[in-house]
Give the backbone structure.
Amino acid sequence: MTPIATKTARATKNVLIVDDETAITRMLKDALGLFQHDHAYTVETAADGIDALAVLKRQQYDLILLDLYMPRMSGLQLLEEMSRLNVQTPVLMLTGNDDARTAADALASGIFAYIPKPFDLQHLEHLVSLAVSSRSAAARR
């Protein structure tokens, strides 16, 4: 895991980024480090659904940023496996595909939000904050 540097000591939220494009992964990690939230982010990455599944069996996360199309196991396939394992982490699905049917399938799988690429970083920051807050609220119940 790569801790994101912060200026003050804050609570940490664990985020898993699952994307086969290293440039996207790097950009998302950098963005998480810049977000002005009440907590810092510790980030782990996986290059596809199979790698992510192995990581999810070892550790819990507060948020997953998930690409839709990846080699070996797609984002939708990973969501199915997560459901079987009863992993209830908020998921923001990121995709370069603007297919309404695929978006509907992803939303039906229980994701928190579907975000077409290229995405606006302010919008992403807002959705990350909402998703992490929803996870915290659910944990308190």
User: Anything to note?
Assistant: The domain at 2-136 is CATH 3.40.50.2300 (Rossmann fold). The CA atoms of residues 2 and 43 lie 5 Å apart.
